[in-house]
Write a structure and sequence with these properties.
With about 300 residues, the protein is an all-alpha fold. The protein has one domain. The protein contains 14 helices and no strands. α12 crosses α14. The radius of gyration is 20 Å and the shape is globular. The protein starts with a helix and ends with a helix.
Length: about 300
């Protein structure tokens, strides 16, 4: 038993070292110097590297398994679909995630109606800027704006779990498919989920410093952003961990993560240019109100897992 515990600890340490060292190296020495560059090629390369970084947790998980001699089996890979009796968890990860993001944005605009622009002027300004950059002329009509937003929303809901599957696999096979089961062997469910969320949040730290999600120059920069990211990752991590635990597969988590990435910026479509929003509040899900649906759901699921563990 002690030998197995030591192996489990060693796997966690190896995984975290590989994942953090490689990620921080790429983000600090490659991505951060290019962040915000006016050079289109450098900016595009930075975006490509950000997507590539998402594969590092999967690489860390595979390496930790191979180095410690863990046999790769159908059970520990956690890549079986297990549809039977589990469709509700797939629904929670997919459409439930989309609903919770929309709920948070709607709640934010109900509380701050002055920051809601039904004409989607922000998107119109982006389309006009793109048109100008391409050297094109012509008026951007309201119907064009509505069409662009509608297409983006539909793609976000119905296609993002599949379009984002590969990069989200890179993260989820590491965080939920490897780290979570290892932590659950050492700790109870509540500390396991809280700890994995904090680790996941700190993994994003260099990007937060570079302005990802929260921007730069705000009061408390960058520590407030890193703290907020840790809270956000705890919340989202609980939901993704819940569907992983229930299905014994990280595939629902991959779909949920893909939906989140595809719809996270949806609330920006309706923000007012005259009344700037506070990203720490909303309407994005990384804000307190924008993420209210996620927060409430995560609290409920965490309590449910705690009760189930206690009764068992």
């Amino acid at each position: 038993m002690e030998k197995q515990t030591n192996k489990n600890t060693r796997q966690i340490v190896i995984y975290l070292l590989i994942t953090f060292i490689l990620t921080y190296a790429v983000e600090i020495f490659l991505i951060m110097p290019m962040a915000g560059s006016t050079d289109l090629l450098l900016a595009s390369l930075a975006q490509a590297l950000k997507a590539g970084v998402m594969m590092i947790p999967a690489f860390g998980a595979l390496t930790a398994r191979l180095v410690t001699g863990e046999k790769l089996s159908k059970e520990n890979l956690m890549l079986s679909f297990h549809f039977k009796g589990n469709l509700k968890y797939y629904g929670l990860a997919w459409f439930g995630m989309a609903f919770l993001i929309a709920f948070g944005a709607a709640l934010y605009f109900l509380i701050f109606p002055r920051q809601f622009d039904p004409n989607m002027g922000y998107i119109k300004s982006l389309l006009e800027a793109q048109q100008s950059a391409l050297g094109q002329t012509g008026e951007i009509s309201q119907s064009m704006v509505v069409q662009v937003v509608a297409v983006q929303m539909l793609m976000g809901v119905f296609l993002s779990p599949f379009l984002n599957a590969i990069p989200c696999f890179g993260e989820e096979w590491g965080w939920r498919g490897f780290l979570l089961p290892k932590l659950l062997k050492r700790f109870k469910v509540v500390p396991s989920l809280l700890l994995s969320g904090v680790i996941w949040g700190l993994w994003h730290a260099p990007l937060i410093v570079a302005g990802h999600n929260y921007g730069i120059g705000y009061r408390g920069f960058p520590y407030l952003g890193i703290f907020a990211m840790c809270v956000f990752c705890i919340v989202v991590g609980i939901i993704l961990s819940y569907v992983t635990i229930k299905t014994e597969s990280c595939i629902p988590a991959i779909m949920g993560h893909g939906t989140l990435n595809g719809l996270a910026s949806a609330g920006i479509c309706f923000v007012s240019l005259q009344n700037p929003y506070n990203v720490f509040v909303g309407p994005l899900p990384v804000g307190v109100i924008g993420g209210a649906g996620l927060i409430l759901t995560a609290a409920l699921l965490l309590y449910k897992l705690y009760r189930e563990e206690k009764s068992a």
